[in-house]
Design goal:
Helix content: 40-55%
Oligomer: single chain
Low-confidence stretches: 113-121
Shape: elongated
CATH class of the largest domain: Mainly Beta
Length: about 260
Amino acid sequence: MAGLVVLSLVTALAVLLAFKWTADQRALVKAKRAMQAAIFEMRLFNDDLAALLRAQGEVLRHTLRYLRLSFAPTLWLIIPMLALMLHMEFHFGYAGLALGEATLVKARFAVGDEGGRGGVPNGAPPETATRATLEGSDGLGIETPGVWLPSAHEIAWRIRPRTPGSYEVRLHINGAVLSKTVLVSEAVARRSPVRPDTGFVDQLLYPSEPPLPGGTGLTAITIGYPERPFTVAGWNIGWSGVYLVLTLLFALVLKGPFNVTM
């Protein structure tokens, strides 16, 4: 929670500065006041159909104007916020592996036609999969040999942590040795559930580890981290819900001292 509070405060300050520097503050004030006046008019003349319809049209018109004025700061904010939240997901979205609790490490193979290089023909395991092995390290045991999962085109191993710490498992496949990080800890830290291939979108979505080298026939190595719950009043709203609510509250509290209209 402490980390989320700090990041929410920093984000709220960025939001306020973006609105202060890139939005027409006077026009925003006029648009908000006009919307409020039209809403009051709807309440005062709710027995006059013509006046009510006219007031509703005014509310819609001024709302669209307000959204247009808010478009510039939104453009400045959306890409940095998405990038920040993407990285926050790997710090706050997953819990570390618990001692003695088993999970799976999976290697996902590319799907190809019969005889396709590195592909999986008709759901059968490729030759490289049948020879793939997983090597653990001290404090992290490999309990099963690789099991082929034809529907997912994956081979899976069951691992079980024995002591807390940061580890690597090493996948020996097709003459290459590919590593995958494993974190056994409840502390807030960067976790990598997926080591992706070299595709741009996959690297963008899973930036915690360098991509897999080409020529291995793999599209990803994954590990089953449990999700970290964030429960408020009995509801699990997740870290992103906590972060966005705190950001909004900080922005509402600080907009007066910063003299900003949002």
